[in-house]
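# nightly structure sweep
# worker-07 picked up a monomer target from the shared queue
# config: single-sequence mode, recycle default, output format = structure tokens
# input follows
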Amino acid sequence: MENYITVDRIKKEFDFVNLVITTTNIDAKNEEDLFKTFSEEEFNLKKLTRNSQIHSSIVNKIDENNIGQRIDGDALITNVAQVPLLILTADCVPVVIIDPKNKAIGVAHAGWRGTYDKICKNTIDEMVKNYNSNPEDLVCVIGPSIGACCYEVSEELVEKFNTNLANHAGKFDIIKDGKHYLDLWKINELTLKDCNVKEENIINLQICTNCNHDKFYSYRKHNKTPKRIGTMIQIK
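# output follows
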């Protein structure tokens, strides 16, 4: 098994970025693992920037003044080259947002709380504000995370989402044997579409971490593991 996977369409169409998603071969939370895995030509890890993730909807803009700082929040945006942005997950949804026209990038950590608070919308709004991004130009990747096949939740939580996303109520709840399963992928897709991201520009890898726990960390399957998948992107 490789230390990381890439996304074919991103590699083929967008040569100004590097995007990787790590596997269980390494723990992306451990920066030593990242330094051992990636060369300086691939990622300038001396400028690695990530949040102190708090399951919020806070988006931090990274510029020359705060590279490498660890700030409370759950999304990052930048248009600065040679600054890797890192999101850590182990069932929560990592969402990558690429603006090929304005050469800007964003990453979001969308657990159920961040998904509920529409962190993807907040990230896009900040990219529009700071980089003049047009949502119709954006290409988004939904990375490995727990799927509706495995994400059992309470009926109460489902109702919270139905109320919050009234226009889409009932489109993301699967009931099996009387149990409710929430589709965070679908909710984030709907949020992106509501922001005017084109459907053909939403790349959902559809990799469930719980089902694929041999390759990706799963908080539920791996008994609340502290180890994390890293979704990392850098402008070259």
